[in-house]
Amino acid sequence: TTQQHAAPALVLDPTGSDRQGEDAALRARGPLTRVNVLGEQAWAITDPKLLKALLMDARISKDAHRHWPRFPTHTQEWPLALWVGVRNMFTAHGDNHRRLRRLVAPAFAGRRMTALTPRIEQITRELLTSIDRAAPGTPVDLRERYAAVLPIRVIGHLMGLPDNHIPDFRRTVDSVFDTTLTTDQAAANTQDLYAILTRLVTTKRAEPGDDLTTRLIQARDTDGLGGGLTEQELLDTLLLVISAGYETTVNLIDQAITALLTHPQHLAAIRTGALSWDDIVEETLRWKAPVPLLPMRYATTDIVLPKSQGIIRKGDAVIAAYSAANTHPALHGRTADRFDPARPDKAHLSFGHGVHACVGATLARLEATTALRMLFARFPHLTLAIHATQLTPLPSFLSHGHRTLPVLLRP
Ligand code: HEM
Question: What predicted TM-score, i.e. pTM, was given to this entire model?
């Protein structure tokens, strides 16, 4: 550990300008390495085996309030304060985590998601019809008009979001994932977001519906389900489900479309039946993790790592480097950095692992396969409108997508 501490921390690039390069640099520094996360120090874990073990380790907590000595006094000026300070399942530990997760998880179970398929297809069809009106030869931004709209409309349906609340959520959730904001901009966005969440709760209290927002409000107001919720937990759970269910899935759809348009041989293999849409979605999740790095976890005690990999001291922060782990040669050999949906083993950690593993993984996969299948059926000759090297990344190390995805529907 002396050596690990002596090496200067690698400063994570807030602009996310070179995901693949930064992942390679992180891996080159060993299975775990010191990083500077917008001014706060953490251990980035890039080795897939070690990362999986730590994600299963009960000595590691996501609760900054209880287990990060830096919080809140030193992190008040930190742009990611919202990520670690929220009171919901994302940051809860132990029994608290089980209580908060139980209120939400059943709504996203496999059977429920299968029943949602017709609704997802209907929304997708409507979106395709609206972009179909573009004139031949005119570029269409598929991120803005398609990838970004489907997930928010689906989560909006499940949560009972009134249509006129959706633009506010899109804007503020985008900013939650933007790592180039100043502290003041991030704080202003957080304030904005809570105003929008409060308005949602007020609206749904007055007009309950058959949706998850209403059920969470009932859990809060009647103290009935699983021991109830505080008002803060209610707002932060709504914030979590709306934001986790949105930005991430937008990136998955964006990256999968981009991957297919730049690897036409795999699109051809789908058409012959040699590959499935599931293969494409799974390999995209592995190759372009929608959430490349996940803040934060904390050691609740000194943790001595196996094979003399070092010690993580009590109170140290840990950031899961999912993207670097997914493309680690130890997991996928020399072709780890290549998009190859035909590889038999597409193992990845993009949805996390262990008790905090993504609640919405089934929904995300269903949305993405539906979006791809219906898009390429409607526009079989779809192409990028600019060269792939001109696509610009989102300004973020927490969100891996493109600012825009200009395509020609009928070149
Ligand atoms: C947690 C990824 C879609 C809801 C997570 C985590 C990741 C993740 C990395 C955190 C794991 C950790 O603690 O390290 C993704 C990706 C998605 C996606 C890549 C899309 C491609 C969704 C959707 C929902 C959702 C559609 C809808 C409800 C959640 C929730 C948690 C979570 C509630 C917190 C779980 C917990 O802490 O117990 N997701 N997610 N996600 N995700 Fe997703």
Answer: 0.97
**Triad 125, 126, 130: Cα angle to 5°:** 115
Mutation test residue for ligand 1: of 63, 248, 296, the one with most atoms within 8 Å of CB: 248
Does the 2-408 domain belong in CATH 3.40.50.1000? no
User: What is the residue type of 294?
Assistant: L
Using omega within 30 degrees of 0 as the cis cutoff, is the peptide bond preceding 380 cis?
no
Identify the pLDDT of residue 2. Answer: 43
What's the 359 CA to ligand 1 centre distance in angstroms? 6
53 Cβ inside 6 Å of ligand 1: no
Among protein residues, the one whose CA lies closest to atom 21 of ligand 1: 249
Angle in degrees, CA 108, 82, 145, rounded to 5: 55
37, 319 in Cβ contact below 8 A? yes
Instruction: Report the nearest-CA residue for atom 38 of ligand 1.
Output: 356
User: Which of 61, 286, 359, 370 is the pocket-test mutation for ligand 1 (most atoms within 8 Å of CB)?
Assistant: 359
What strand order describes the sheet that includes 60-61? 10-11, 32-37, 40-45, 317-320, 294-299, 60-61
At 10, the amino acid letter reads: L
Q: Is the ipTM, as predicted for this complex, more than 0.90?
A: yes
CA of 212 to the centre of ligand 1 (A): 16
For 312-338, the pLDDT digits (tens) are 999 999 999 999 999 999 999 999 999
Tokens 């939650």, located at residue: 176
- Preceding omega of 264 cis (within 30 degrees of 0): no
* Residue extents of the structural domains in the chain: 2-408
